[in-house]
Amino acid sequence: MLLVDDIQLAFGGLKALSGVSVHAQAGKITSVIGPNGAGKTSLFNVISGFYKPQHGRVTLDGRDISGLKPSQRAYCGMSRTFQNIALFHGMSVLDNIKLGAHTKLKSGVLSAGFRLLQTRKEEAELSHEIQRDIIGLLELDRVQHHPVEDLAYGLQKRVELARALVMKPKILLLDEPVAGMNREEKQEMSRFVVDVRNNWNTTVLLIEHDMSMVMGISDHIVVLSFGKPIASGTPNEVRANPAVIAAYLGAGDDVAMAEATAA
Amino acid sequence: MNSVALFLEYSAVGIASGGIYALIALGIVVIFKSSRTFNFAMGEMMMLSAYFFYTAAVTFSMGIFFGVVAALIGSVAVSLLIERFALRPMMGRPFIAIVMVTFGIGSIIRGVVGMIWGPNDLQIPAILSRSPVLLGSIFIPGKTARAFAIAVVIVISLIAFLRYSRAGIALRAAAADQITAYSMGIDVRRVIAFSWVIAAVTGCISGILMANVNTLTPHLGLVALNVLSVVILGGMNSIGGVLVAGFIIGWLESVTGWILGTEFREITPYILALLVLLVRPTGLFGTKEIERI
Amino acid sequence: MLSQVETTTIPTPLRTNNRDWLWAVLLIAVLAALPLVAPRYWIYFAGLLGINIIVTHGLNIMTGYTGLLSLGHAAFVGVGAYTVALAQIHLGLPFYVTIPLAGVVAAVIGIAFGLPSLRIRGLYLVIATLAAQFILNFVFVHWQSVTNGDAGLTVQPATVFGYALNNETRTYYLILACVVFFTIFTLNVIRSRVGRAFIAVRERDLTAEVLGVQIVWYKLVAFALGSFYAGVAGGLMAYFNQFVNPEQFGLLLSVFFLSAVIVGGMGSTLGAILGAVFMTLLPEVLREGALTIGGTFGFDIASILVPLRETIFGLLMVAFLILEPRGLAQLWKRARQKFSPVRGSE
């Protein structure tokens, strides 16, 4: 589905990524993990089109999208969430979610201003679809009319997921979906991600620091360290890989390590 | 006189008037450096100072020296009040909101001055000699030349002050990174207030000089908007670059005024600004920042 | 996490429930009946108010919803006014052609100024609009052969089916129709995909980009709408005053519209109306007050009216930005909640 092939990215002389390849298979949850500073977020920014790598390609469904702008990639069926919540303040939860469907709607300013049939129809369909597919699935019915800034952290993360889902993406990129959450919220979020995959057969690529989540839900894991891939495989294979253990120990990330081996 | 000589003369006069613009530009940049605030009220601060001078020197007949001192004190006081009660509450707010606040302050000052001193031109006591200066065969009007000399001396001393004094170093540290500066024990609030004091001083002197070269009206400050436009396009980072921008505006105004007619002077900086945007949209010296998402 | 402009947006009272529609219809009916009872001066004033509301709607779309600051909106109003005057004088076009034309010309000229700087964020657009303010005003004054300079141009009243709109009352209805149209149009745009994209661009442009919103395109659309509204309003102004000259479109007018947007509440359509009403009424009230006081104490207040306005526009702008950035719309909302406890929480 999504193929990231031999990416090389440098800022000035500083190499952020070298020789990174990831294959997110259709209908699977693929995770990229690694200690802090391993280049996970850089990789995501390459995939969404904010950074132009010096070498390598990104293909989606067999189509090379390396040259496309972020907004064009959205039109190709790519959506993502952000590590630091990036919701639009001053809008309700529902309107935030509707923004996720921007690429699916067609109304221009005249059609919207005169409220022509096209606009009425697509807005009604969108509302219907959100109520049917998203609000229930992510349990947002009680907060949908609230201003988004009034929501608790965990809920805001869920709204972001909802916003990424309305377009029914081919590939869903999740940037640390459980960062900063408590245990209960983490479990909830893991459940939602799995639900989404199971219900819609969405391909998911996520980067995450939290080992228990990654080990629990991933089908395939790629491990990065200092911008280089050092291991990949199923959760069990990765867990047993000495290079991974060394990387985490070397990074002094004992907590993550303990979680990884315990999970 | 042939056209080459005329060109040289208009250029010299233009660059000479650019000295005052450089002084204004310095005031704008200092505030920008300390707090990332674009001060759209700079011109009005400058114009108000000139009225202070007029009032002290003429109305209260304090003479030129004490007039200047009184104007300086008044300008600094007003500047600090603006910083404390209008800008400080806006810390952390979106930049367009801050721009609108300074723009609003400009409007307040223009209005208040109009109400107190009226809309008509006032003649302030001449502090600059009229006797022309000759540079070889180039003839520069006396006031312009002397205003240039004073402006340049002050600009240079202020730059030296910013470079070598403790306060100046604190300012530059805060400009580079507010949080680090704060953690190193620099009181960022005081630095910001200090930058407003500097701006008040440059505004006051440029205002008095400008009112001497031209006459004093509530619209005297509009010239600072020209300067601001060009300065923003020149890039707000380097003080040196900003000064050059001041001279360039002065030169261009003078030369276009000569070629196209004086009425074109007032819009020259804006045409320049639009051209720059068209050709080099990131500004002349601007760099594209990599942003964290 | 800084939002570009602090506002609450979508739920304007006109939209949320049927009762609001009822009120709106009632209000329009009252406004339509107004000329039957109100003195002529009121009608003149209401016309002026309507024109200001249209401009404020436009500027609010740009500055309030999309976060694009314009310091030169008066100049775009001027472009509309001159377009009407010139189209009528030289081409003899009727108002139903000249008014839309005024909007289109203003939008095109607006875009010509704005386009280079819309590609970049930050202050460049502010500078470009300031440039528009001064350069366009310069053109109005100095392009003598076309604009007749400071002396200005005279405009004949608009005619509808051979019926000349030659007094305040008749023009008032034309303006009222435009106000209703532009208010509804704005509300419709804002609650659509386009409006959501505007707010997204204002709040977090990079996130908007990831969602597929083409930032530059939507900035352009907002800018075009903002200057179109200004142009139309300028056209109405030309018919209303039957006279166009450069003095009407100075920097002070730009400050006026900006304060109307701020005072009303950036990013609120109701706010734009409240702001325009408040800002239009206030100087009149002040003037009456000042003239009365001046008359009583026997000194000449009239001469300080212009600077007095300038001061008050600025003061309101600063005060609202600092104390209540959501403006009168927010105060209105609070008052409603206070006085109707039953509907307090939707």
Describe this structure in words.
The complex is a heterotrimer of chains A (263), B (293) and C (346). Chain A is an alpha/beta fold. Chain A has a domain at 10-77 and 170-262: Rossmann fold. Helix content of chain A is 41%, strand content 22%. Chain A has a 6-stranded mixed sheet with strand order 6-7-8-3-9-10, with helices on both faces. In chain A, strands 2-1-4-5 form a 4-stranded antiparallel sheet, with helices on one face. In chain A, α3 runs parallel beside α6. Chain B has one domain. Chain B has 293 residues and is an all-alpha fold. Chain C has a domain at 13-247. In chain C, α4 runs antiparallel to α5 and α4 packs across α11 (215-241). Chain C is built from 15 helices and 4 strands. With 346 residues, chain C is mostly helical. Chains A and B meet through loops of A and loops of B.
Strand order of the largest sheet of chain B: 1-2
Shape of chain A: globular
User: In the CATH classification, which architecture of the domain at 10-77 and 170-262 in chain A applies?
Assistant: 3-Layer(aba) Sandwich
Largest interface: B-C, 49 and 52 residues
What's the pLDDT, averaged over the residues of chain B?
86
The number of helical elements of chain B comes to: 11
Helicity range of the residues of chain B? over 70%
Number of helices of chain A: 11
Profile the largest sheet of chain A.
6 strands, mixed
Largest sheet of chain B: 2 strands, antiparallel
Helicity range of chain A? 40-55%
- Secondary-structure-derived class of chain B: mainly alpha
* Mean pLDDT level of chain A: 90
